[in-house]
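Show me any protein, fold above all:
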Amino acid sequence: MPRKSILLSLLVSFMILFAALPARSQILGVPHQTEFTDSLKNEFLHAPYFGLYKDNYFTVGTTIGKLPNKHNSDVKFQLSIAQRITKTTLPLNSYLFIAFSIKAMWNVFEKSLPMRDLNFNPGLGWSFPFFSKGRYAGKFTLMIEHESNGRDSIQSRSWNKISFGASTLVNEWLMVHSKFWIPIVDGEHNRDILKYSGIFQGGFAVTTPNKKFGWALTLVKRKGWNLNFNTILEFNWKIFPNDNQYFFAQYYNGFGECMLDYNQFHSRLRVGMVIKPKFFSEF
């Protein structure tokens, strides 16, 4: 990974992060949610060092509006893990962690089943869960991230980001999230990646009270002043009451789904299985 000076951008991100820190969250002070919010606080304070980060899924699907064939149908899967470096003993209950995600586009319907693209996304993060009256309300995360597809020559794609995001639990069934980043584009063949893969994102996740069904919408704003978004719409259905395995459907509409063809438009629906983190996913 190329080494570049990022201290100034990191300082700016850190200042904006704390300027945006909310005074309170709507989830707090609701009596019947006490057990839920206390369990979230306990999860942050006493959770294992190693675990899931983003959703881990395996899906298969095809292009919307076209007759399926071996060229417009594929498998998409993601593996994502995180390792805490510290417990919540740093100032403001914060902790350091490392995360690593792999996203793959796999042409399983073509001869020899070639992997079309593998995207690697390691990062170093600093998370600040915030509480009010002893109860968990949300968190901010500051990260240094790298993303690339590990190829060389004209198929090489890479960029770096100083990103910070926030997620807030409005109530027990609704979580709102946002994230934006300062890009450091070092890939020779993807200098225009912000036009396609975006500059910030936001969305929400909704579940039924018993957590059996869930929906999530994420909008990624592409560069420019017009209303151009990459849209990710997801649905999950818990298969067994006491497990975190779900039937999963994902609809992706826009650019930047993978690094190799970041500047090509895709509108694809895929279905499969997903394993989710215990309380909520990272985006």
Q: What stands out?
A: Residues 167 and 177 are 4 Å apart (CA to CA). Confidence is low (pLDDT under 50) at residues 1-32.
